[in-house]
Amino acid sequence: MADFAVWGYGLAALVYFIFGIYLYAAWRGALKGGLLLLTISVSFLWALSSAVFASTQVAWLNQLALALDVFRSASWFAFLVLLLRPLLAPAARWPLGIAAFIVGSQLIGVLVSGFELVGAELGMRFHIALSLASAVYGLVLVEQLYRGMPTESRWGLKPLCVGLSASYMFELYLFAEGFLFGRLDMDVWAVRGLAHALVVPLVALSGARNSSWSLRMSMSREAVFHSTSLAVAGLYLLAVAGAGYYVRYFGGGWGRALQAALSFAALLLLALFFFSGAQRARMRVLINKHLFPYRYDYRNEWLRFTQALSSADGKLDLGESVIKALSDLVESPGGTLWLRGLDGTVRTHSRLNQPRIDASEPSGSPFLAFLEAREWVVNLEEYRTSPAVYKGLELPEWLALFPDAWLLIPLKSAGSLVGFVVLTAPRASFEVDWEVLDLLKTAQRQAASYLERMLSAEALLEARKFESFNRMSAFVVHDLKNLVAQLSLMLKNAERHRHNPAFQEDMLETVAHVEARMRALMAQLQEKRSIDPTRSVDVAAVLESICRRRKDQLPRVDLLLPADGTCIVRAHPERLERVIGHIVQNALEATPENGKVIARLGGNDADRVVVVVQDTGCGMSDDFLRERLARPFETTKSSGMGIGVFETRQYIRELGGDVRFESEAGVGTCVTIELPRVARGHSGQEQGVVSQHD
Fold first, then answer.
1. What is the pLDDT of residue 685?
2. C-alpha triplet 192, 196, 202: angle, nearest 5°
3. Which value, to the nearest 10 degrees, does the dihedral of the CA atoms of residues 86, 88, 94, 99 take?
4. Cα–Cα distance list, 572 to 289, 368, 578, 689 (Å)
5. Which terminus, N or C, of the chain has the lesser number of Cβ atoms within 10 Å?
């Protein structure tokens, strides 16, 4: 057992060392925490010297280990007496006096045996007797501490009392047997270090529970869960190993085969346990219930919950993520999410580990009214046994389609009910207490805010689609209005000029032009996009076409072109003609028949093509020009739509140009359009230059 003793005491030294470093980092200067740190430090030195002695068998190391063992006992006595002080009478000195007597006697015993003042056998019996008394007194102090502590305060010291009681009982067994037989059982002594190392986690747990020790310690629930799982697995494997040894020893010729079969079955059951969600849930509930003051580690739970809602892992959408985040809080395998639609009806939106069910809850139903008014988490198990608790609740008929429904969680945000979640029965028995209800209520508000933003984003996207379509429709209607105006003017002049061959030719040309434009507009409306790409366009030809089509209107449009006659830009030919034509048409409508309208094309700038449309019409006020002109659906004309100027500005800027308006009420308006010029060497490339003959 020498090797086992080395490993056992070495492991104890390592555990004490790690725990001591953690205590030193967590200590905040209180006496209790400092005394515990001293106790752990002395215990580390004792375990280390015992491990070295077990390895080397040097006599003086044995004496050092015995002396450190005495100081270790003294430190634990001092710590327990310090914890007992508030529970004893102020004049009570017996705990400290007895502890001092036992520790002093033990030190004398170590000195006597070390200097061989008496016989070896007598010295050994004296040391064992004093160690036995130390173990008994330690049990007395632990019992006094636990019994004297108020019931509501025992929770914090329970792990410490359990751990020290176990260690003192081990000491009692070791030294009681040694006192009877006059020597220690070396096999039991070899595992003494390992036994004391197993007590350290319980001491750490009490340190984390008692803030009065001024130790800023925290026990991770994940670490406790995994360490407990490993401990259970280890005990299970030890039991299986013992059973396998028994089967092999007493199984005769079949012993080896039975041992192999037993080992395989045991490992299979262990694998099923670790991969079973229900078993993990049961262990998690058991640990949270008995080892921690609260069921949840709120920091980790909240981080995990918000992470599940805010980041998609590529497998679950937001609705499924909400179900999973809520179900993980209560060990439920899944459920169904119901969301309110635009008509107020609540329908199924997402599901997790549930079959598809087509059902809905109408707006204003008593069930939805109860959830919105009370905002209660409805426990269906409690409702079936005590329906009076949920007074006024009427469960819907579709709930019968969910035989394993367990919790109904309302989702309420900004005072309105967004929907609710139906969770299925948990994997393990789960008590729904006040802590669970508070956490679910807080979590549902967070989930409801995410879902409300999702619904708002979907509604906004749909509204933008309609807005885009409506804007395009408005532009098309505006163009149709202009085409209708051309047809109306043609019909008005037909009464006087219908027998004129030139007028008939112009009329047919106008009708063909209107028909082609209407077909193009309908195609654009159906395809929801521009129907032609940009091309090189001769602006001079566009202005000539616009003025020619309005030659029958009064006043006449005076067209002024540059000497070279061509100014090339990149644009959609029909749209460019439409927006410039709109500016010319506005000038004609705003100017009386005896007024003047001028369309001038500037050709001097090498980089820009400038189109100026100037009239002597009614003009616009400064307020209208500054505040309302650039807005859609704003106009000074009684029959206008207020779309043309907006479309003109949008399209010219889309081409890289700009539009400027200068106007004065009663004087007239000047509109300046600037467009990027295409270099002469590129004007005829690609699809060619569009002229008035195209």
1. 45
2. 155
3. -40
4. 74, 55, 10, 12
5. C
Beta strands in 414-489 (DSSP E): 416-424
DSSP 53-105: HHHH--HHHHHHHHHHHHHHHHHHHHHHHHHHGGGS-TT--HHHHHHHHHHHH
Integer Cα distance of 211 and 572 in angstroms:
78
Contact 155, 293 (CB under 8 A): yes
Separation between Cα atoms, residue 668 and residue 666, nearest integer Å: 6
Residue 106, pLDDT score: 82
pLDDT tens for 550-585 read 777 788 889 888 877 678 899 988 888 888 888 888
Q: Which residues contact 5 (CB under 8 A, 6 or more apart)?
A: 50, 51, 54, 186, 189, 190, 191, 193
Report phi then psi at 536, rounded to 5: -75, 125
Return the SS3 of 597.
strand
- Alpha carbons 344 and 349: distance in angstroms, whole number: 14
H helix or E strand, kind and range, residue 599: strand 597-602
**Tens digits of residue pLDDT in 610-657:** 999 999 988 888 878 876 776 665 565 555 545 677 778 888 888 889
Structural contact between residues 336 and 361, judged by C-beta atoms closer than 8 angstroms: no
Q: How far is the C-alpha of 600 from the C-alpha of 611, rounded, in Å?
A: 6
**pLDDT over 70 (residue 134):** yes
pLDDT computed for residue 612 by the predictor: 93
Distance between CA atoms of 642 and 644, rounded to whole angstroms? 6
Please give the Cα distance from 32 to 39 (Å, whole number): 11
Residues 283 and 229: beta-carbon distance below 8 Å? yes
Beta-bridge partner residues of 557 = 597
Mean pLDDT, range 168-194, rounded to an integer: 85
Top-confidence residue, 692 or 443: 443
The reply to whether omega before 676 is within 30° of 0 (cis) is no
Q: How far apart are CA 585 and CA 579, in angstroms?
A: 10
Residues forming a β-bridge with 612: 600, 672
pLDDT at position 686 = 46
- DSSP code for 215: B
- How far lies 466's CA from each of 89, 217, 239, 322, 589, in Å? 83, 58, 71, 30, 32
pLDDT of residue 632: 61
Contact 202, 165 (CB under 8 A): no
Strand order from edge to edge, sheet including 689-690: 568-571, 535-538, 689-690
Counting runs of H as helices and runs of E as strands, what totals does the chain give?
A: 21, 14
Q: What is the reported pLDDT for 650?
A: 82
Whole-number Cα distances in Å, 693 to 126, 508, 552, 600, 609: 127, 16, 20, 21, 21
CA torsion through residues 301, 304, 306, 309, sign: negative
Pick 421 or 578 by higher pLDDT.
421
Q: Which residues pair with 601 in a beta bridge?
A: 611
Q: How crowded is residue 37: how many other Cβ atoms within 10 Å of its Cβ?
A: 20
Coil vs helix vs strand at 307: helix
* Residues whose CB falls within 8 Å of the CB of residue 527, separated by 6 or more in sequence, listed in order: none
